[in-house]
Design the sequence.
């Protein structure tokens, strides 16, 4: 079987001829024109006399098959593709050649995993199938390639979140990133104010952004903020007053009023009011006491 190779020379088929005159066997080469398509062909071999011998001249038939060529699929050595890059012809840069030549065979590639797949980080095996446009002279072909996928560089930005005074320097930041759409990541960014006191645009230091979650192995944090700003605004405290009962004395003044509040534990805050606190009237009974100037 001779395989079609699409080159610029004729195909060559060899046949054996037995010479009855001298009892020897000779091989004869036949040049088959390139215009033949794959298939089975018959040759008629005609003997010619030699050195004046003319008796016993004859002919015989010989057959040969011209088979389809199988293209070779090539992918140049390339760097890893970055995670999130979908499989496509442009990324794989595959070419199909006539075997042993640099002649490109036109056709269509298909992949498993298919085009449009997002491969995970690491080494992935890709099965490639090729269907030639010229199915008369070429067979389909398939092969496996390994594709390296490198982690995506995750860029993270942060904005500080304002908070009411709570006596601590702990801060909260809102994080934004450029993860691949649909991926699930948890990002942790421990953050602290420069001090606990009230003030606008206070510096917030960010310590060691880390990522976790189902897709975390596909990323590395490359660009991470180390600080941002936020405000601490005053805490609104609630003050309560408690007055002691008294014996009727014709006066509305209340004595022994005690104030309490919900200040941050440990803070030194003095609750005061402008005396006197007063009952609603001087008469006996359960009364409302008004405390002013707290």
Sequence:
């Amino acid at each position: 079987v001779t395989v079609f190779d699409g080159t610029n020379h004729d195909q060559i088929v060899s046949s054996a001829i037995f010479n009855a005159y001298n009892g020897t066997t000779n091989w004869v080469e036949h040049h088959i024109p390139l215009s033949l398509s794959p298939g089975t062909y018959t040759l008629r071999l005609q003997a010619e006399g030699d050195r004046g011998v003319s008796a016993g001249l004859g002919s015989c038939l010989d057959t040969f098959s011209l088979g389809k060529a199988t293209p070779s699929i090539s992918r140049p050595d390339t760097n890893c593709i970055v995670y999130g890059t979908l499989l496509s012809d442009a990324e794989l840069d595959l070419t199909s050649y006539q075997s042993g030549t640099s002649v490109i065979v036109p056709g269509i590639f298909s992949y498993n995993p298919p085009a449009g797949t997002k491969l995970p980080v690491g080494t992935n095996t890709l099965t490639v199938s090729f269907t030639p446009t010229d199915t008369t002279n070429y067979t389909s072909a398939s092969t496996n390639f390994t594709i390296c996928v490198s982690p995506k560089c995750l860029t993270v930005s942060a904005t500080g979140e304002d908070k009411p005074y709570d006596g601590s320097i702990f801060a909260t930041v809102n994080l934004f990133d450029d993860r691949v759409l649909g991926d699930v990541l948890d990002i942790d960014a421990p953050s602290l104010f420069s001090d606990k006191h009230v003030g606008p645009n206070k510096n917030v230091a960010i310590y060691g952004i880390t990522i976790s979650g189902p897709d975390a192995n596909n990323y590395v944090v490359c660009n991470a903020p180390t600080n941002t700003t936020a405000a601490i605004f005053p805490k609104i405290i609630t003050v309560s007053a408690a007055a002691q009962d008294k014996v009727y004395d014709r006066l509305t003044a209340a004595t022994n009023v005690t104030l309490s509040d919900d200040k941050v534990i440990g803070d030194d805050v003095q609750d005061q009011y402008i005396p006197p606190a007063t009952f609603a009237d001087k008469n006996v009974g359960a009364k409302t006491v008004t405390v002013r100037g707290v």
